[in-house]
Amino acid sequence: MNSLKHFFSAKGALAGIISGYFPRQAQLDMATEVTEAIEQQTSLIVEAGTGTGKTFAYLAPAVLAVENSSNHSEHNQENKKKVIVSTGTKNLQEQLFYKDLPIIRQAFASNLQVALLKGRANYLCQYRLELYQQTRGQLDAQSLTDLVKVKKWSTATHTGDMGELVDLAEDSSIYPFITSTVDNCLAKDCPHLDGCYLVKARKKAIEADLVVINHHLFFADMALKDTGFGELIPQADVIIFDEAHQLPDIANEYFGEAFSTRQIVELCHDVQQVYRTELTDVKQLGKAADKLLQTSQEFRLLFPYDPERGNWRDKLKQARFAQAFADLQVDLDFLYQVIKLSVSRHETIDNCFERAVNLLAKYEIMSKVDDFGVSFWYETTPRHVVLHQTPLTIADKFSEAITQANAGWIFTSATLSVDGGFEHFSRQLGLSQAKQLLLESPFDYQQQSQLLVPRYLPPANDYQRAHALVDLAKPLIEASSGACFLLFTSYRVMNQVANLLAEQISNPLLVQGHMGKRKLLAEFVDQKQAVLLATASFWEGVDVRGDKLTCVIIDKLPFASPDDPLLQARCEDVKRQGGDAFQQVQLPQAVIALKQGVGRLIRDVNDQGVMVICDDRLVNRPYGQVFLKSLPSMKRTRDLETSVSFLQNITCASQNT
Amino acid sequence: MQNQVLFYVLNDSEHTLTNSEVEQELVLYCACLQAAHYYRQHKKVFIYTQNQQQAHAIDELLWRFDADAFVPHNLLGEGTSYGSPVEISWQAPKNRRAVLINLSTITPDFAGQFTQVIDFVPCDEALKQLARERFRCYRQQGSQVNTEALAVNKLLPLLNSKITA
Fold this sequence. Notes:
CATH architecture of the largest domain in chain A: 3-Layer(aba) Sandwich
Radius of gyration of chain B: 15 Å
Largest interface: A-B, 21 and 20 residues
Oligomer: heterodimer
CATH class of the largest domain in chain A: Alpha Beta
Distance between the termini of chain B: 43 Å
CATH topology of the largest domain in chain A: Rossmann fold
Largest sheet of chain A: 7 strands, parallel
Number of helices of chain A: 27
Number of strands of chain A: 18
Order of helices and strands of chain B: EHEHEEEEHEH
CATH superfamily of the largest domain in chain A: P-loop containing nucleotide triphosphate hydrolases
Strand order of the largest sheet of chain A: 3-4-2-5-10-1-11
Strand content of chain A: 5-15%
Structural class of chain A: alpha/beta
C-alpha cells in the first residue's frame, strides 16, 4: 500500500515521467480500493468523474499485483497473476496499449508481458486475400490501389493488424474480402492456419501477463461465440472494465442469438464460388444457392425500404411474413441437403455445411416466438434483415460467471451512477455484492460551464420546431464562433435544421451521413468555425479538447425511443418484477446518456463550455431533479443572453492567446 | 368558501437593506421559498408577477435552486397545457390552482379563486403604501387576511449565498 502511495505522490514514479502530474486524493483512493478488490477477489464499481485519472488508478495496482505475484514465485509461473483490461472502443484500447501502459511499465521498471487483442475483423486473413486475388475479376481503380497497398504491407507485417495500414481508408470496400468472419473462417481446415495472424494474436494474448481487449471480445469469450474462445477469462485473476457503462447493452447482445440474411447471402455466394471453381459437376449446388439467395432477398423486400427496428413476434403473426419466413426454411433446408451430398470433397464446402447446419439451428430459435424470458426483435439495413432473440436480463448469467471466476473485478467509467447511486448499473449486471465508490471530478463546473434550458420552446411535435431551434442556435454559434455540436434525436429534425442553417449562416456545416464518423470529426477539428450536426448517439467516444468544442446543443432529453426492442425488453423485465419501468429503466438510461454528453464538453481543467438542452421537461417535470442531481453541478440558466455572453468571453479569451 | 390571505411583512429593524433593488430581489427569493414550500406539500402554485422581466427573474431563481431543493416550474406559454406544479406569469392563470403568490402591486381580480394567497409588504415606502391598498382590497373581497413578520437580517445572508453560488 505504501508503494502505491509513493507511486502517486508528487515525488513518486508517475510524477517523474509525466510532466505536470499532480497528486489527486481521488486517484489514490481509487487505486487503494482496486488493490483491495484484487487481493480479496471481490468486485468493485467505481465512477470516476472526468479528470480523476482513473486509467492509472487501475493500471498501477494491476501491474503491481502481477509483479508481486511473480516475485514471490520466481520458479513457479503457475501463481503469476494475469490481468484483462477491457475497453468499450478500439480507440481507448490503442491509447491504453500504446500510451498508458508503456508509462506504467517504465514507472515500475517492469518487464511485464503485455498484449493487444482486437476483434477478428481487424486481422488480415491470408487465405481470404489469396482467394480474392484468384477470383476478384475486374477491379475499379480504387479497389486496385487498395489491393496493392494491402499486398505490399502483407509481406512485411508481423501482427497482421489492419490498424497498421494507416493510409487505407476506414471504409474501403476491400475489408470484407481480406478479413474473415466467424462464418467463413475455415479454422483448423485452413491451409494458412500456421501463419494465421488471429491465431497468433490470441496465443500471445493467452500467454501475456496483461492483455488489453474490448467488451465485445470479452463477451464473445464468455458466451463462447467464436472458436478458440473461452480460454481467456478462466485464466484471469484481475478483470478490469473501463467505459463499463456500455457493458449491459453489449452483454445482452452476446447472450442473445441473431439470424441474419447476410449470413445466408454469404453462404450462397461461397457455395456458388465452390460450384464454379471446384465442384462444377454438382449443378444442384448452383441452383439451390440461387433459389435461397432469391428467397432471402424477397424476405428483405417485405420490410419497408428505410432501416427500422421492431417486434418480430408481432411481424410473424402476419400471414405474408409467416409465409416468406417459411419459404426461407424450405430453401435453406434444400441447400443443406444438397451440400450434404458433397461433404468432404473440398474444405470450403465442409465449412459451408457447418454454416448451413448452424443457420438452420438459428432459424429454429427465431421461429419459436412463444418462448418466455426473451424478447424477439428485428432490425433492417438497406439490404439485410437481422432477427434477434435477446434475454430480458443477463444479471443471473453474469453474476454466476463472476462467482466462478475467482478474480478481482473492477467496473469503472465516468458515467455509472444515477442520482448518486449505482442501482441501475448493478441491477443490470447482477452486481449486488460489489463494493461501490463514487469519485467526483476535480473540475470546477460552476466556473467552467453553464447548463441552458431556453425559454418558450415550441413542443417537440410543433411544425415550427426546426425554425425555433435555428433561431436559438444562431446566436450561440456566432458567440462560440463555430466549435459547436448540434445533436438530435431524429434524422428528420436534423436535416430540417441543417437545411435552414445552410441558408442562414456561413459556417461550414458538417452533417452526419455525409461522411464517415471519423472523417466528420477530423474535419470538425481542422475547419475553423465548423458546426457539426449529428444524432445523439454520436457523442459516445468522441473526444474534442479545448476551445474546439465550447457549445453542445441537444434538441431533446436523450430518452431512448420507446420502440427500441432492447429497451422494451428491459421494461418488460422490470414490470414483471413489479417495478416502475420509467424510473428504473428509461430515466437512468437517459441520465447516463446526458452525463456522457457533458463529459464531451468539459475534458480538462481549462475547458469551458455551454450545454444547451432544448427540452423544458428538465425544468417542469419532477424527474428533472434526477438529472440535475446526477449531472456535474454546472451553472444553470434559462436566459439565452447569459449563455451567449459566457461563450463570447471564452471565444475572446482563446483568440487573444 | 372564504379564502386565506397571508401577508409577509418585511422587517428591517437592523437596517441591513441597502437599497430597494436588493429588497425586490429578497421578495422574489421569498416567493420562491414559498413556492418550494407548497410544492413539497403537493399543492399547485401560481406566481403572479408585475411584468415579464420579473417572471423571468423568478424562473431563473427557481432554476438555480440546489438540485436537492428542485422545484419543477414553467412560465405560462411553455410546457404542457395543464402546467407544472409551479406556474409563473404576468398574465392571468389559465387553470385552477390552490396557492397564489402575488408579486404584482395590484390586487389580482382572480385572487378569490385561490384558497390560499401569499403577498408581501416591503419596507420601501411607496411599495408599502401599495401593499396597504391590497390589504384593504382583499378584506373588501371578503378574504380572511393575516400578517406575519419576516426578519430581513436573517434572510439576506441566504439570498447572498444563492447569488454568489
